TrEMBL record:
Keywords from the UniProt entry: Glycoprotein, Phosphoprotein
Source organism of this protein record: Streptomyces cyanogenus
Transmembrane segments: none
Ranges for domain Strictosidine synthase conserved region: 115-191
Coiled coil: none
Name used for this protein in its record: Strictosidine synthase
Upper lineage: Bacteria, Bacillati, Actinomycetota, Actinomycetes, Kitasatosporales
Cited PANTHER family: ADIPOCYTE PLASMA MEMBRANE-ASSOCIATED PROTEIN HEMOMUCIN-RELATED, STRICTOSIDINE SYNTHASE-RELATED
Domain of life: Bacteria
A Pfam family of this chain: SSL_N
Family: Belongs to the strictosidine synthase family.
Signal sequence, renumbered to the chain: none
Length: 319
């Protein structure tokens, strides 16, 4: 991997709520996000902190995480408490698309993408730990993350892939022939072919210098951006090789201990061959636990499960 370049912060935009976990840019340069109190927000004029304005689009009644804008302007929402939702951004109507699979309630839905055939793919990060105990899954290395598919006609989703290490962000390839999935617990991106003899089988795509969270594709021909919620933690890598009983004991301790995110933050962008296009980092950052990144105009916008607003950074020069 190339030597990282500095992530250049410009300003912070407060949202009046904590935890804008995912950020996505619309065609008009506005940014949409979901916050801890269940609201879906749209932020205007992020380039100027003095004139930035926030409007409420909807309230999910749960905890919205990953977002996906649809061609008609509606929004797919992965809600950690309610499942996979569709939000009408015009009148705020919230509709549940899926809240269970094979008789098991869906919880900790994390990220979703919609493909041109109308199918929706989405991730479940953990079947053992809810959102507020997410660190337990990272420490235990439970491997209970899933990739699911909802057919265009709806119905109950099907499980395409099981055994993922904290399945998180999701992005399609430029031609729609495969998906890229972030496995936060293993610091890697994984490739899932959708066609051909290897369809549905996980393949290595890219090893990363930190724990990837949400993914966002910068247009059909652009790279896939990954937010790094934490740098690699060597003691954690060692723990993941320990027996399950040891990991579970460590996880029980971790969920009871106070947590403070690392001051080192970063984002990476990769092309459809898994090659690094950008790797940006900042140490001693005042904005911590970057869980999402998107591009709008000349800016990178960062979201965070931890912070009460979004950070606006300089967009790197094209490579």
């Amino acid at each position: 991997m190339d030597r990282p370049t500095p992530l250049v912060p410009l300003h912070h935009v407060a949202l009046g709520a904590r935890g804008p976990e995912d950020v996505v840019a619309d065609p008009h340069g506005r940014v949409l996000t979901g916050v801890a109190d269940g609201r879906i927000l749209r932020v205007h004029r992020l380039g100027d902190p003095l004139t930035a304005r926030t409007e409420v689009l909807a309230e999910t009644g749960g905890r919205p995480l990953g977002l996906e804008l649809l061609p008609d302007g509606d929004l797919l929402v992965c809600d950690a408490e309610r499942g996979l939702l569709r939000v009408d951004t015009g009148d705020g109507t919230v509709r549940v698309l899926a809240d269970s699979v094979a008789g098991e309630r869906l919880r900790f839905c994390s990220n979703a993408v919609a493909l041109s055939d109308g199918s929706v793919y989405f991730t479940v990060s953990s079947r053992r730990y809810p959102l507020h105990r997410w660190i337990g899954d990272i420490v235990e290395h439970s491997g209970t993350g899933r990739l699911l598919r909802l057919a265009p006609e709806g119905g109950e989703p099907e499980v395409l892939l099981d055994g993922l290490q904290f399945a998180n962000g999701l992005a399609p390839s430029a031609d729609g022939s495969f998906l890229v999935i972030a496995e936060t617990g293993s610091c890697r991106l994984t490739r899932i072919p959708l066609t051909g003899p290897r369809a549905g089988h996980a393949e290595p795509f890219a090893d990363l210098p930190g724990m990837p969270d949400n993914l966002w594709r910068e247009g059909p021909g652009g790279p896939v951006w990954a937010a790094l919620a934490s740098p690699r933690v060597p003691p954690l890598d060692l723990l993941h090789r320990a027996p399950r009983a040891v990991r579970r004991g460590a996880a029980r301790a971790a969920v009871r201990a106070p947590y403070r995110p690392s001051g080192t933050v970063g984002v990476v962008a990769v092309d459809d061959r898994g090659r690094t296009v950008h790797h940006l980092t900042r140490r001693r950052s005042a904005f911590r636990m970057v869980t999402s990144v998107c591009v709008t105009g000349d800016h990178l916008v960062l979201g965070s499960l931890w912070e009460p607003g979004v950070a606006v950074c300089a967009r790197p020069a094209a490579r």
